[in-house]
Amino acid sequence: MVMTPDRGVVFDVLSRMARLGLGGPVAGGGQYVSWNHEDDFTAAVRFIIDRDALTGPVSLASPGPVRQRDFMRELGAAWGVPVGLPATRWMAELGALAIRTDTELLLKSRRVVPGKLTAAGFEFRHGTRPEAARDLVRRARARDAPGSRRG
């Protein structure tokens, strides 16, 4: 998942859940979430384009996949919401139906690491989830501030 503060994307949806106190563990929260900050995603694409020797599939994920329960706890903390209510599998299925998505996004574990990218020398600017969450929340708040051109 590429995290960006834009409206209607995954970060916006997850942030809304966290702010409402609904960002707790889903089905136990043990599944891994692979993510990437938008700045690192675009920098990684440029890095790949600039290196002819870097060929084949390249994973564009941060170097720190995190468990879903930790991912949402850190996002909630960045919004100043210290607790998120847990959800069972059936609750997740109902919620996914309501927002017209697939429960796979919430329940499937993805532990992707950027081995080829980091071995080639790419350095992540937002490689730690808490720092990335704080940056994205700061930018989302600026987006929503009164008088904001993006709000």
Query: In percent, how helical is the residue content?
Result: 40-55%
What class would the helix/strand composition place it in? Answer: mainly alpha
Going by CATH, the homologous superfamily would be NAD(P)-binding Rossmann-like Domain
Query: How many β-strand stretches?
Result: 4
CATH first level: Alpha Beta
Main sheet attributes: strand count, strand direction, barrel closure: 2 strands, parallel
Please indicate the count of domains: 1
Rg = 16 Å
Low-confidence stretches: none
* CATH topology call: Rossmann fold
Mean pLDDT figure: 87
Estimate the global geometry from the Cα principal axes: globular
> Hey, roughly how much beta strand do the residues contain?
5-15%
**N-to-C SSE string, H for helix and E for strand:** EHEEHEHHHHH
User: CATH architecture, please?
Assistant: 3-Layer(aba) Sandwich
SS field, number of helical segments: 7
What is the rounded distance between the termini? 23 Å
What strand order characterises the main sheet?
1-3
Written overview of the protein:
This protein is mainly α. The longest helix has 16 residues, at 129-144. The chain is globular. The protein contains seven helices and four strands; from the N terminus they run βαββαβααααα. The strands form two sheets. A two-stranded parallel sheet has the order 1-3. The chain has a two-stranded antiparallel sheet with strand order 2-4. α3 (68-79) packs across α7.
